[in-house]
Amino acid sequence: MLTISQLAAYAGVTVRAVRHYHQIGLLPEPERDASGYRRYGATAVVSLIKIRTLADAGVPLSQISRMLDADPSAFAEAIRTIDGKLRDEIERLQTSRTHIAQLTAGDSLALPPEVTAYLDRLRAIGASQRMVEAERDGWILVAARWPDRIVEWMPGKSAALDDPQVVRLYRVLSEIFDGDEQDDPRLAEAADIMACLAEQAYAAGDFLHAEEADDDIPHDLIDALADEADPRAQRLRELMRERGWSGWNRMERLAEPPRK
Predict the structure, then answer these.
(1) Which of 72, 75, 82, 256 is deepest in the core (most CB within 10 A)?
(2) pLDDT over 80 (residue 102)
(3) Centroid of chain to Cα 89
């Protein structure tokens, strides 16, 4: 007959674990002997080894008692069920690890790889880190609203970076927003480039009506994001209106440019 310490050592568990199994009714607690000690026989050792084996395999303690009393068929079915749950949990953890690994670059947060590749190209053409981060946050808003469309839009956005005017625009904006001058004269140059690009797109028929154009919320959020990041964005929109264009993300041609 074994003491609780000897039982725990033989089965490879702690005394605390044995007492916990007693408390939850998983392992019967023997009566004390004349000396006031609890003594455990061979049956208790076998039961404890089975409990430890099932627990080490990942079986929840709440299910172990039922499994110990099950016949071979029911036991096998319970094992299959537990194995399936463990397999699902492993897949979930593997997916989480993949997502965590993708986040090491920072840009991958909430964005597909096509967008992160586009952001890398922005860096390559000379856009500042602040400019890239502003673009990234804007694309996060777009991806959340139109997750199924964003991938088809990216080839056109990437192709636009081959245009020297677009490259110049990003460099000028980077210089403006990285500086401290609130009424930077280069804002006029940026507005001129943007108006020229808008005119070209309008002439080419690229401003076609689409369902996304009528969805006000994301466009309003992107405009607000620019304003919250830097008040000079609002001044840039005012300069665009003077050149016959309204909006920022969703540009619209005015019937007649306002008088200066």
Answers:
(1) 82
(2) no
(3) 18
Per-residue pLDDT, 99: 63
65 lies in some domain: no
- Alpha-carbon gap, residue 254 to 25, rounded angstroms: 78
Are the beta carbons of 116 and 123 closer than 8 angstroms? Answer: no
The four Cα atoms 19, 25, 26, 32 give a dihedral, to 10 degrees, of 50
247/67: higher pLDDT: 67
Strand partners, 253: 245
Backbone phi and psi for residue 25, each to the nearest 5 degrees, phi listed first: 80, 15
How many other C-beta atoms lie within 10 A of the C-beta of residue 85? 12
Q: Is residue 258 part of a domain?
A: no
pLDDT at 224 over 70: yes
Over residues 220-240, the mean pLDDT reads 91
Q: Confirm whether 155 is domain-assigned.
A: yes
Tell me: do 78 and 53 sit in the same domain. no
Class of residue 129 by CB neighbours under 10 A (exposed 0-12, middle 13-18, buried 19+) = exposed
Q: How many Cα atoms sit within 13 Å of 103 on the Cβ side?
A: 8
Let me know whether 96 and 210 are in one domain.
no
Considering the domain architecture, whether residues 91 and 79 belong to the same structural domain is answered as yes
What total of structural domains would you count in the chain? 3
Q: Are residues 145 and 228 in the same domain?
A: yes
> What confidence tier does 163 reach under pLDDT thresholds 50, 70, 90?
very high
Predicted pLDDT at 22: 94
**Residue 147: inside a domain, yes or no?**
yes
